[in-house]
Task: structure prediction
Amino acid sequence: MIALDQPLFAVGKEIQWNWSDLYGEKKFVVMFGGLHIEMAFLKVIGGWLQGSGWTTVLADTNVATPGTTESFVKAANVTRSYQAHQVTACSLFILLQKAYTKYKEGVANKDDIMSFESWCAQQVSATPQFQYWYAALQLELLLLVFLKSLWVADFYLYDNGISKMLPWFFAMNHSNYARWLPCRSMRHAFT
Result:
């Protein structure tokens, strides 16, 4: 197994395809480097949050200065961007829990209370703003799960995370990652 940056990954896959008898996918697993996937996905999330007021909220709450918060959208500094997304995920989750608690308190008959998952699904379909921020939370959590897979060296969690990230690379027009991540053939390499 070898991890490569995006430009070298493309070359590695071409070598595998052209000389499959020597370097084929049965002999070598060529995969994207985790840092570059993280950077690209931070940019995906930044693109999703751009124009939402996210950077203003971070600046107003003294998470970072206004100039620094704008750099989070482009993931100019991976560590600081990651920390801002951690803060965002925690904040969104706390707000989500408070809203669900308020909903439960407002239901007269306690037998009529929807489960958390059902309530979220109902809110997503009823309120566009809820849908937007719920999707933002899901993106933040997906990033955290992917990073956990790298930290604990869990290949299947890594592969599952990339599979869930892939549609977002397409949706947010990150063409290199959208094009090359499906070529990793990792699931088939171990079968």
Remarks:
- Residues 124 and 131 are 4 Å apart (CA to CA).
- The radius of gyration is 20 Å.
